[in-house]
């Protein structure tokens, strides 16, 4: 599992160079319509491991920040790793965790092999806050900075310095994490107990600092700006424009430089994935091991002038890679249907014959892996976010044609994806679309009822959706999940 990788970066024909994934895809099923439930790490990772939505597993935000709303899973929520461990699997965890602040992988059936650099959380949120204030105090003691920027730098007076991209030969120690995973693979023999290895790298997360050799691969490649780069977002929530304001400090050429670094970072992660595949082959395990490549969430990567991820509910932050290969998998195919990270848990449990009583909200992908087509698949995809540590209620539904976003903090959004695939024209306020908005809003409420979403406060100052929860309970309303 990489961190913050867009789903389109692993698609055939994309300008991102991924030779190892290209070879892997030849024997894998490429779930090209895969989405995460929330646009940042912890809620999506918790969904990956539990098969539940944020409203069900209880992790709404990044758990290690001082003002975290939630720091742990709800009582009684289990991870699929616990089911595998109970069935005799030796589960080994390397890399990024970010599921719970209060508990680590060892509390959920894993051997915790993270080591330094990707280890456990600091002692308390108070410690984290204290560290931040000490950093701010050191900055306050320095002479005031001039207003001149270095390349890729975004000025934020009073905050820590931020440089958007650059060079680093071992970003986030991802090579060290991969080496640890390779060592575990080399220790497995034909006599080993059945095993599961999770390797979580941190790239291509911002800031995009990449080894020089991978940047050189893109040296002579022209980098165009995204088709919707000039979107002023005047018809969208003010928070979107405020967020863009930071990145507007970057020139168009710097945006191109950032795209170049992001793509090079994806190529670097592909290189590390190739090392894992080589270790699997060298150990003689390739023929009887299921391999999954995925990410927790995406990145705007310059679309609408934005970067990173967060509340703007655009496809780039939600669309993620998912490729699966292994014994019994009829590979070399692409499945475009709507898939969720919640589908991983039931898939693994069905393939391993474990977790008969495991509670989840996803759907098993096993029929697709076997080359079959399920008789009925989901007709809509839903997202849930309460904000990235700045409270902001946001829920969305995407169907074949429409994407409706309910923003509890601002005006809503509606995009006609067939005629506006880059989500540039917000139709939510148009009279002719009132019926579509009400219908999709009702489906969001139906989904909320089905998945324990508490976002139903009727108070006049917060109950501002164009159709309330009762609309989701009327006859004929279906969620389509």
Task: Give a verbal description of the structure.
Strand 15 (394-398) and strand 16 form a beta hairpin. The radius of gyration is 22 Å and the shape is globular. The model has no long low-confidence stretch (mean pLDDT 94). Helix 6 (174-187) runs parallel beside helix 9 (252-282). The protein has two domains: 7-369, Alkaline Phosphatase, subunit A, CATH 3.40.720; 381-473, Arylsulfatase, C-terminal domain (2-Layer Sandwich), CATH 3.30.1120. The chain has helices at 19-25, 41-50, 54-57, 80-86, 125-140, 174-187, 212-216, 238-247, 252-282, 315-318, 344-352, 366-369, 434-450, and strands at residues 28-31, 34-35, 90-95, 110-112, 153-154, 162-163, 165-167, 195-200, 208-210, 291-294, 322-325, 333-335, 339-340, 381-385, 394-398, 402-407, 413-416. The chain is of the alpha/beta class. The protein has a four-stranded mixed beta sheet, with no helix packed on it. The longest helix is centred in the middle third of the chain and has 31 residues, at 252-282.
